[in-house]
């Protein structure tokens, strides 16, 4: 009994280390999002940290339009990054879980 418990604890620590390593790796995965007309480009990491925003000069003349572009494209970029982040972390977490009937349903 204690052997199984110690084995599980070791596996959980190993999984935790893999999750942390995956989080660090996701800092290097870049997500690009551009407006359909190319006037605004946003790059962020899969951990949802903004790395760059490029704004075409034509958008600088219309504050409201620029704000709309930023909101729309930042939300799209964050959604893409969140999907990558969640998929990667779920895969690592699922890999490290003990084989308990019904637990696999939590990661679908």
Automatic annotation (TrEMBL):
GO terms for cellular component: bacterial nucleoid; cytoplasm. Keywords: Cytoplasm, DNA-binding. It is found in: Cytoplasm, Nucleoid. One of its GO terms (molecular function) is DNA binding. Gene3D superfamilies: Nucleoid-associated protein YbaB-like domain (3.30.1310.10). SUPFAM superfamilies: YbaB-like. InterPro entries: YbaB-like_sf, YbaB/EbfC. Homodimer. NCBIfam families: DNA_YbaB_EbfC (TIGR00103). Belongs to the YbaB/EbfC family. Binds to DNA and alters its conformation. May be involved in regulation of gene expression, nucleoid organization and DNA protection. HAMAP family: DNA_YbaB_EbfC. This is Nucleoid-associated protein C5O00_13505. It comes from Pukyongia salina. The lineage of its organism: Bacteria, Pseudomonadati, Bacteroidota, Flavobacteriia, Flavobacteriales.
């Amino acid at each position: 009994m204690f052997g199984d418990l110690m084995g599980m604890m070791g596996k959980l620590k190993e999984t935790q280390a893999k999750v942390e390593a995956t989080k660090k790796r996701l800092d290097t995965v870049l997500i690009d999002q551009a407006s359909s007309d190319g006037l605004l480009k946003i790059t962020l990491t899969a951990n949802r940290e903004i790395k760059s925003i490029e704004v075409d000069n034509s958008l600088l003349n219309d504050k409201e339009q620029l704000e709309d572009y930023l909101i729309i494209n930042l939300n799209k970029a964050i959604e893409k990054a969140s999907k990558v982040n969640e998929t990667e972390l779920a895969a690592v977490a699922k890999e490290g879980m003990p084989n308990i009937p019904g637990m696999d349903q939590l990661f679908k």
